[in-house]
């Protein structure tokens, strides 16, 4: 691999390691088998770099993002080791721009909910997006920050809380009740001297 790794994550049980590179490659390594490459994914419609990846809780699917409003989802349990977008396997595109009539923006961060039914994404248009995978549509758009939303995550297993971090130097906490008011967080964590680039829970 000649390009630099930009994002990485372990699976919840630590058995898999996912790395996204500034080329178009995403590699899934099997930690229990001596870090052998279990799947090599060639990303589709990549703009700049793979900005984030997220494994579903059952480790069957992987979503990946770039500087585009389209999030791609891949079946990582298939027998094919080389997953070339729409050549050897279908990389379904989930359109997060539907609410804005095709407005173009980039997605910096994406995470599955713990039940695998929703995705939350943070974007370059200062917003948080929630996508309902069962309904296959965008369910919510929140004008969350005053700058790029670099990182988002579901806070716990209930799926009722979401954390976000932004280049406006703020971390915010969002509850399901906030989703009605949309732009009013349940809490704000201040005092960071620079933009917040990562949050985990």
Q: Would you write up a description of this structure?
A:
The structure is a single chain. With 201 residues, this protein is mostly beta strands. It has one domain: Methylamine Dehydrogenase, Chain H, CATH 2.130.10. 2% of the residues lie in helices and 46% in strands. The chain contains one helix and 17 strands. The strands form four sheets. The protein has a five-stranded mixed β-sheet with strand order 1-2-3-4-8, with no helix packed on it. Strands 5-6-7-9 form a four-stranded antiparallel β-sheet, with no helix packed on it. Strand 2 and strand 3 form a beta hairpin. The longest helix has 4 residues.
Count up the helices: 1
Biggest sheet details: 5 strands, mixed
SSE ordering: EEEEEEEEEEEEEEEEHE
Which structural class fits the helix and strand makeup?
A: mainly beta
Q: Any idea how many domains?
A: 1
Which fold name fills CATH's third level, the topology?
A: Methylamine Dehydrogenase, Chain H
Query: How many strands?
Result: 17
Indicate the mean pLDDT: 89
Shape verdict: globular
Low-confidence stretches: none
GO cellular component, one term: Cul4-RING E3 ubiquitin ligase complex
Keywords: WD repeat
WD repeats: 100-141, 142-174
InterPro entries: DCAF, WD40/YVTN_repeat-like_dom_sf, WD40_repeat_dom_sf, WD40_rpt
């Amino acid at each position: 691999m000649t390009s630099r790794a930009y994002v990485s994550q372990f699976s919840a049980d630590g058995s898999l390691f996912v790395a996204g590179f500034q080329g178009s490659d995403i590699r899934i390594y099997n930690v229990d088998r001596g870090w052998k490459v279990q799947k090599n994914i060639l990303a589709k419609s990549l703009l700049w770099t793979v900005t984030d990846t997220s494994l579903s809780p059952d480790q069957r699917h992987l979503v990946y993002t770039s500087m585009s409003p389209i999030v791609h989802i891949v079946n990582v349990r298939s027998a094919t080791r080389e997953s070339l977008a729409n050549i050897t396997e279908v990389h379904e595109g989930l359109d997060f721009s539907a609410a804005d009539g095709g407005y173009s923006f980039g997605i910096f961060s994406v995470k599955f909910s713990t039940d695998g039914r929703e995705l939350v994404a943070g974007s370059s248009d200062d917003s948080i997006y929630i996508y309902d995978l069962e309904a296959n549509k965008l369910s919510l758009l929140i004008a969350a920050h005053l700058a790029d939303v670099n990182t988002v995550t579901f806070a716990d297993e209930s799926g009722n809380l979401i954390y976000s971090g932004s280049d406006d130097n703020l971390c915010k906490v969002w509850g399901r009740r906030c989703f009605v008011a949309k732009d009013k967080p349940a809490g704000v964590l201040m005092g960071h001297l620079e933009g917040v680039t990562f949050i985990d829970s």
